[in-house]
Amino acid sequence: MNQVIEMDREQRYSVTLRPEPEGGFTVRVPAFPEIVTYGENEQEALAMAKEAIELSLEHRLAEGLEIPDAENTRLEHVTVLVPA
User: Fold this and answer.
1) Is residue 5 part of a domain?
2) CA 25 to CA 38: how far, in whole Å?
3) Distance, CA of 30 to CA of 41 (rounded, Å)
4) Is 10 among the domain residues?
């Protein structure tokens, strides 16, 4: 029997888009380390990220697992020296 899960609030999650040499973008979602997806262009990559997040939320709710709070996710930059 399939359980219907109602979503009742919006939540924003950060995603990273990495351009691939062959084209398109690999997408990661820091709040959901299990998510790695791909889109042939930025619009498709973001749509794939949205779908993956929604599926992960449904799975986590069905299993009684914690829902990540997007506010706890920080994206920072680190500068490093690259060997010559």
Assistant:
1) no
2) 6
3) 20
4) no
The strand pairing partners of 16, in sequence order, are 28
For the chain, strand residue ranges (E) read 16-19, 25-29, 32-39
pLDDT tens for residues 13-72? 999 999 999 999 999 999 999 999 999 999 999 999 999 999 999 999 999 999 988 767
Phi, psi (rounded to 5 degrees) for 19: -65, 135
CA angle 66, 49, 26 (to 5 degrees): 120
> Phi and psi dihedrals of 46, rounded to 5?
-70, -35
Give how many domains the chain has, as a whole number: 1
Residue 65 lies in a domain: yes
Its sign, for the CA torsion 37, 40, 43, 44, is: negative
- Which structural domain, as residue segments, surrounds residue 49? 16-72
